[in-house]
Design brief:
alpha+beta, six-stranded antiparallel beta barrel, six-stranded antiparallel β-barrel, 25 strands
Amino acid sequence: MGWFTRPTAPATRLSVMYADGRTAAGGAALLSPHRVLTCAHVVNDALGRDPYESGPPEAAELTVALHGSGDRGPGPQHRAARVSVWVPARPAASTTVWRGDLAVLELTEPAPPGPRPVVWRDMAEGQELRAWHGGGAAITFADTRVKLQEDAVGYLDGDLSGAAIGPGFSGGPLWSLSDETVVGLVVAHVLPERGRPLGAQDTVRRSWAVPWRTVREELRRAGAAEVLEDCAVHRRSGRDDPAPGALAAELWRLLGDPVRRAQHARALAAALGYEPPAGDSAPSVEELAAVLAAEERALATLSESLAAAAAPGAGRDSLDRLLIAGQLAGARLLSVDEHRLLVAELADLVAADATLLPRAAREALRYTPLPEPLAAPRLSADDIGPVVTELEAYRDGGALPDGTAPVPALLKLVEYAAAGASAGPSRALTAWSDRVAGRLGVHRAALSQRRGDAAAWAAHRPSPVVRLVAELSGAPADGEGRFRCEVWEVRGDGTAARLVAADRPRSPAEIGRLIRESAERAADGGPPVEQIDVVVGRDGLELDVDEWEAGSPFDFLRGVPLGVTYRVAMRCPEVSARAPRREAELRRRWESGHTGPLVVDERTSSSPERVYSLLASTHRDTAQVVVHGPPRDRERLVQLCLAVGVPVVLWDRQAEGHEHAHRLDAVTPAGPLHQLPERVRHFRAERYGAQAPGGARPSLVWEDTELPLPGGLELLDPAEGADIR
């Protein structure tokens, strides 16, 4: 046994319960306070479905029981859960085993503090493992051993003593007996044929499991990257890992004296939860280096006491080299105490103002890929821990005094958050930042520069955001009606900034929510954003973007269309850019005095030639055209109007012919032009509230020359799906 040992702690056991709430269908592994992993066939069984039903259980609610400390502890605590990731069992080459068979469950409320999320490690042949029956009783444990790994499956054999893995064990974690890690999930067991006695040649106590490596691959294939980010993974160095050797070289310089090494090692053990041996002994440098390589926060925690005792010069230089070696080995930035204190301070900050951290991040980390929760308008308290962990990996690339450590991105965000916070939280955050910067060797001048930038940001009041621009580009290979969407904010002074990159195809409902959340975030405490410009290609002019569900911040109100809350209009630079002297044409028509719209209906010849002649003669200064008629004719006429530089075009995409022209009368097309977008929004809101069938579904193109499209959108063909950098 080594110098660093942990006190024995009971494993956390979870049960997926049948509807009666008294018996368990199987076990599960706790991934995080909000997520549980089990087998899909266990979920099916618990819900009374065929065990190998492939379709996801839509909206089904399950009960998960969490057992904290064995039979003598308090009774299990129950949580409701729903399936969030579904990987059904699927056939494989063998008739005995199958693939997939995983389900991630989201708990409707966090797990209680007692049960610990599992720590994963890779399965290896020869490992001694322990599993529990899904009922969770301590006496139901069964010991087994990994005998073979082949074709993404782990095969297990148990000794002929004690209990055996059997019905009810499926979905439960396989705990390593050598440490407190989990290497996979129990899937199934081999039972002898019923009705005949056991023979000498029969397979006895053989089970099979899905290893952690296979779990990773299946969840990644299912698009559940955020679940994998939630999983804790054991970091253990192997013989060929250079990290312990690099760390040991610097540790010899810093802690070559056994007395001094014992003092710092005991402080480290206390912080990490180890139990060192009694007396004044010290761990070897090699064992200490191995702990620093295996425990993510060990190096930062050790460096706290080292920094306090380090003398300027050679002592600090050795500590800096140790920190650099640790960074290369994947060590976390913060110590155990620093991490705990920061998460607590940020939780108080979020409770007081959930928008502050996202606002600060957009300014402080302009050129840093933001964690997804920081891209939302508000940060949830549950997302603070994952956000801090992700930002620990980033470094600031700003100018620094020679030979000093860079300012981490996390410290920069903390400085901006402190600048925007009230006096008490601000003092606590700056004190935390000073402490961490001192330990890391960050020069005071570098930190002061970031602090000054943060203060200037907090004091500045930018021009308000007056509209969002959302560019849609098709994803032809997707085949599911999804689009890539890039979102920009445009301020009253004409400046623009990209809020969301076109990173992946999204469904209309996802885009609707994305636009609403971007509008809420862009408001930033100022006036609400009311205008949404949607940039589409020629083939996107008939999209019902205004009807895409944007969700709602209110739990009791769901499915609110974009066009009810915002003035939604389209822009189509792909067509408009074909007009000679396009900018001049648009500006001239806007400045013409708005003499009234050209209405294209059955009284006017609706041929493209006739409409063109009118726009080139008697309606040369017309800024608005209202197009009626059947869909095929209407499509050509809308594109014609845009091509010759008409800035405003209105039509009813629901109309089947000229007989439906009257349905747009409620929008008052001939009314004041500057009020048209708001009149269209009112019409859409009334139609949504009344839930009346039929009626007009107005589409509006509004090309505004006063606030041009940001970036390169003016010249982009959205159908190409180009990304702006």
